[in-house]
User: Fold this.
Amino acid sequence: MVILFECYGNFVSGNANYLALISKKSRGTIILTERLFSFKSLKDQILFQISVLDIENFIITKRFNLHTIELRTDKVNAYSFYPHKSGKSSLGSSRSLTEDLFRELTRAIFKKGYPVLYETKAGFWEGIPSEENWKATLEEGFLILTENGLSFKPFETNFAHNEKITRISEVHRELVNSVPYILINNTVNKTTSYLALKNNSRHIKEDELKTDKLFELIIQAKDYKETEQIQIIESKKQLIQKIKSILEVSNKLKLDIMRTALDMDQKEFYEKVFIWAKKFNFLIEGDEIVVDHDSIPRFMDSLDKGFRVPNIALVKVKCVNCGKNIEYLAKICPYCGREN
Assistant:
């Protein structure tokens, strides 16, 4: 198993006091893999492990002047730990190592099996930052971008911000006090804003190059997902047409042929078949389905309207005339008024 992070550190369970947190008994080795957070004490060689799947939340806090991570697996069980560079002393913590461990925890928990396209220390605003106090209202944390979504985990608050790529409707590069940031609108008209920050800085210091790179990659991920959705829609249309062609020449259809044409797994297909049989007056005889021809138009219309097809309303394409993003099914562009 690949080790994401390994370092000397101190670890305690519960709301421990200062002496318990820095004691020799609490000193050991912190190891994080994609599946497990582990701590092994140096004195007693006791191994403690937490499944990454069981981690509900984690934050960075400063306890007794130590840069500490507090982690919870539920409302009752809490743990505190901090990494340090030496296994011989527990009196100091490393801010950079703590942020490195926080970053790896964010990756392990939020990437959800998808490759990470980009990651950075970042700032976040709910809505649009104000010119007067944009730094004061910014939340610092760590951001990862995968082909499936954007996740931001604040350092000091529990609530993480996640946005699926398919739910992003618009992405813009904006400026606040001449500092570039990324503004995202989603399909439910919620606005969030992000900018990349420099690593290992004690003060908020924006990183324009990283912000521009993140902006480009979000655009690319969005374009890729929209293209993928269009391909899925077209593929589903072809599969539905296969069913139509078969039913035009016969009132009987093998269940396996129908399942293959609809590209469904066996469990889901048989659940649907019995629903269809009741709704559209189909009969099931052995391994065949006997179709009521009078119900075929309603059945095919049901498939056409979105059965196992992504939400077409969320899919955007560029107008061939003006280049604006418009709905996939739009015949006339609402911006330039010309036909697509």
Remarks:
- Residues 111-223 form a domain with the PH-domain like fold (CATH 2.30.29.30).
- The chain is about 30% helix and 35% strand.
